[in-house]
Amino acid sequence: MVRINLIPKEERVKRVKKRVPTRRKVAIPAGIDVYAGIGFIIIVLIIAIVGHARLTRKITDLNNKIAAAKEELKKLKKEVQLVNNLTKEREKLMVLVDMVKELNKERALRFYFLQEMLRILPEYVWLTSLNEKERSVSLSGITFSNLIVADFMERMMKSPYFQDVELIELKKTEIEGHEVTNFTITAKLVFPGIRKEEHDGKT
Q1: Which of 10, 65, 129, 166 makes an SS bond possible with 140, Cβ 3.0 to 4.6 Å?
Q2: Closest by alpha carbon to 78, among 86, 88, 90, 67?
Q3: CA angle 39, 41, 46 (to 5 degrees)
Q4: Confidence at residue 15, expressed as pLDDT on a 0 to 100 scale
């Protein structure tokens, strides 16, 4: 069936226009995109400057801490050097103290050795020489018989100050027409209270 539109043409155009509303265009001011770009760049620069300032402060603080640590290390090195120097001086002093002790011990040994010699020396024995070196002693003398020499050696063996008593020489000779016996005896000196191993280590 054929439909006939009886609405006038003008009226039809108006109705069509009412049915299809037109969109309004928003007017953007010229150059706003340029300003937006500049603003964005400024914001980025501000953020970068603030971040750089913070990083600079952190680096400065770190450098200050490193400098303080180095200064403290220098002080510690000086203190360590001082301690080392004092330790060396103390070691030198201890060496001197030990030397003094050893000298005093040797003096005491000689004193007691001479005192012991006077105690055990038999009658009619005259010493002509006495040499002491490195805890060893060599005695030379004269007497009237071999028996007196044997008695002297026996007394030395019983003494706590002598070890390894040995007869080196025994011979007859004359002095002003009188027959006498020359002898030489060697022995090791022992300081009572010192172990034999320590004594042997110093010979």
Answers
A1: 129
A2: 86
A3: 95
A4: 54
Question: Residue 77 corresponds to which tokens in the numbers above?
Answer: 């090195």
pLDDT in the model for residue 201: 47
Residue corresponding to tokens 């060496």: 95
- Report pTM: 0.49
Full 3-state SS string of the chain: CCCCCCCCHHHHHHHHHHHCCCCCCCCCCCCHHHHHHHHHHHHHHHHHHHHHHHHHHHHHHHHHHHHHHHHHHHHHHHHHHHHHHHHHHHHHHHHHHHHHHHHHHHHHHHHHHHHHHHHHCCCCCEEEEEEEECCEEEEEEEECCHHHHHHHHHHHHHCCCEEEEEEEEEEEEEECCEEEEEEEEEEEECCCCCCHHHHHHCC
Which distant-in-sequence residues (6+ apart) come within 8 Å of 184 by Cβ? 138, 139, 140, 167, 168, 169, 170
Q: How far apart are CA 125 and CA 81, in angstroms?
A: 63
Going by pLDDT thresholds of 50, 70 and 90, the confidence category of residue 85 is confident
Q: What is the spatial order of strands in the sheet that 136-143 belongs to?
A: 126-133, 136-143, 178-189, 162-175
